[in-house]
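Incident review: delayed structure delivery

Summary: a single-chain prediction request sat in the queue longer than the usual turnaround. Root cause was a stuck worker, restarted by the on-call engineer. No data loss occurred. The affected request and its eventual output are reproduced below so the record is complete for anyone auditing the incident later.

Affected input:
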Amino acid sequence: MEPAPVTFVLDPPVSGERMQRVRRLIADDRSWLVAALVTTLLLGWNGDEASSIAWLNPLLFVGALAVRWHDRRSGRARLTLGRWATTGMFVIVGWAIGMVVELTIAAGGDGFGGMHPDTGPSFVIAQGYYIPAVLLTLWAVRRYGLDERRAFWFAGAMAWWEALTFGVVAMISPAFPLAPILAAYYVATYALCGMAGMLVVDHRVLHTASPRSISTRRLVGYGVAAGTASWAAFMLWAVTASALFGFEL
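Output delivered after worker restart:
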């Protein structure tokens, strides 16, 4: 008597619809903001480089999420100003978010700022990164007619160095399970520093009359290049500011 044939039951492949949902989730800036918020809550704000007001960090993500969820449920509600006023507000809001981020960091253990152990020099040289980053994001929004989600990807791509270095370190350390959300934290933080103005003002006022089309892949590539250019400007300004104001780097 021959034995019954052995049959193997394979798990059904992931459906195309499910993969589409995963892609939409990854492409949604709110997913990254949630991951960044979770990271701040898991890691707390009492680390070696956390300032005395590092609790402001999660509040930034809560505020951004509140605006983006309102967009989804009730539609966008933004200030509608003239072109010049909108441009100015876009730059000021992005810069201000960057300064709040710096206030949550204390590279020297005391004081504020992550660019230098001393508070004053840290905020002076920080301008060399944050101002170019906001201006380059403004350029991309205007030239390519970006909305909040695509501007998030452009500005978030500027975090390529932190996302890569800290992500790799986490992957080879006991914090391995946290590597993805650590990378998401840096992407979301950099994104807010660049495009937070779009959560306040109507970005459509900034668009050119005929915005150019651009693929997401190229947009992210331009974001990486913009981040590299911003850090190059930072290093140049840091050396210049050190000579002008007489502090050591």
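Verification: The chain has a mean pLDDT of 87.
Action items: add queue-age alerting; document worker restart procedure.
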